[in-house]
Specification:
- This protein is α/β, with parallel strands linked by helices.
- The chain contains 10 helices and 14 strands.
- The longest helix has 17 residues.
- The two termini are about 20 Å apart.
- This is Phosphoribosyl pyrophosphate synthase-associated protein 2.
- InterPro entries: Pribosyltran_N (IPR029099), PRTase-like (IPR029057), Rib-P_diPkinase (IPR005946).
- Keywords: Nucleotide biosynthesis.
- Seems to play a negative regulatory role in 5-phosphoribose 1-diphosphate synthesis.
Length: about 375
């Protein structure tokens, strides 16, 4: 039985907490809940800081206690106003740096702009820009969770710990879905097949992959390879030279690779934001005979009309973690359930502060997980 066992040694933390300060950088009250949970698990009080918007929408941060020579952990969850959230974090990091903090560790469970980590046609790699800004502001270490692409860690020139939420989601499946042995793990596109395979192997379940849905924003058509346009005869190319053109993709009809008839279908992914692809996958699975459909994701952004669409859909339950606050969405849609991941974040903070190895938090995690 795969369970989560993380021992938080409060006595160790209490002995060393003189050199530890935990701040939450959010001016939004609903976003400070995760910070309170982490501080409670560690047996420390949240640091005193004021974060607010002035009348002209400028962000102001005022630290109200000494951080000189201390390990400062800044917990920042991403609210609806993403850009304000980023500025709050950068200003607070810089304020701690100029106040002579020994180490400044960012705890950012959901890394914003993580989907903009590849070059688009005449676009930019925004997550690289954001990483550079954080390092320049004074961040010395980053704790995050389930990056959209693991390669984002390479954008930083500081240590990055990319924690995993899958143990908590696996535990939820085992404890909250009574007949999960009759389930099949579903990837809603071939791109998420690796994650589905990881879940299926750990739960000893089958896997199904939906193939042929509409192309998403990360298809080859928008990754910059078609810029400039592929035209055979242009003046810059020698008349005797013909560059072979790539054959355009043709979307096949929707097919499900794997048997879902008479089974519980559990769709897994890292982010659930625009729910259209999840709704289409749920409809397809219903047509193929799945009698119950769950969606499990680490980050529940659930923007726009997502709660209403989920409530009206064939999806029975959406399970996300509290890396992003979504209390309002839960009020709009009772199908949304939350798994608390403050335990692993607090243990990561304790280990970093005490100079202990982080490998315990990454046990049984392979290169493809």
């Amino acid at each position: 039985c795969f369970c989560v066992h993380l021992a938080i040694h409060v006595t160790d933390m209490s002995a060393a907490k003189g050199g530890l300060v935990i701040f939450t950088a959010n001016s939004n009250p609903s976003s400070r809940e995760l910070g309170r949970r982490i501080a409670e698990r560690l047996g420390v009080e949240l640091g005193k800081v004021q974060v607010y918007q002035e009348a002209n929408r400028e962000t102001r941060v005022q630290i109200e206690e000494s951080v000189r020579g201390k390990d400062v952990f800044i917990i920042q969850t991403i609210s609806k106003d993403v850009n304000t959230t980023i500025m709050e974090l950068l200003i607070m990091v810089y304020a701690c740096r100029t106040s002579c903090a020994r180490n400044i560790i960012g705890v950012i469970p959901y890394f914003p702009y993580s989907k903009q980590c590849k070059m688009r046609k005449r676009g930019s790699i925004v997550s690289k820009l954001l990483a550079s800004m954080m390092c320049k502001a004074g961040l010395t270490h980053l704790i995050t969770m389930d990056l959209h692409q693991k390669e984002i860690q390479g954008f930083f020139n500081i240590p990055v710990d990319n924690l995993r939420a899958s143990p908590f989601l696996l535990q939820y499946i085992q404890e909250e879905i009574p007949d999960y042995r009759n389930a099949v793990i579903v990837a809603k596109s071939p791109a998420s097949a690796k994650r589905a395979q990881s879940f299926a192997e750990r739960l000893r379940l089958g896997i199904a992959v939906i193939h042929g849905e509409a192309q998403d924003a990360e298809s080859d058509l928008v990754d910059g390879r078609h810029s400039p346009p592929t035209v055979k005869n242009i003046g810059a190319i020698h008349p005797s030279l013909e560059i072979p053109l790539l054959i355009p993709k043709e979307k096949p009809p929707i097919t499900v690779v794997g048997d879902v008839g008479g089974r519980i279908a559990i769709i897994v992914d890292d982010i659930i934001d625009d729910v259209d692809s999840f709704l289409a996958a749920a409809e397809t699975l219903k047509e193929r005979g799945a009698y119950k459909i769950f969606v499990m994701a680490t980050h529940g952004i659930l923007s726009s009309d997502a709660p209403r669409l989920i409530e009206e859909s064939a999806i029975d339950e959406v399970v996300v973690t509290n890396t992003i606050p979504h209390e309002i969405q839960k009020l709009q849609c009772p199908k949304i359930k939350t798994v608390d991941i403050s335990m692993i974040l607090s243990e990561a903070i304790r280990r970093i502060h005490n100079g202990e190895s982080m490998s315990y938090l990454f046990r049984n995690i392979g290169m493809d997980d």
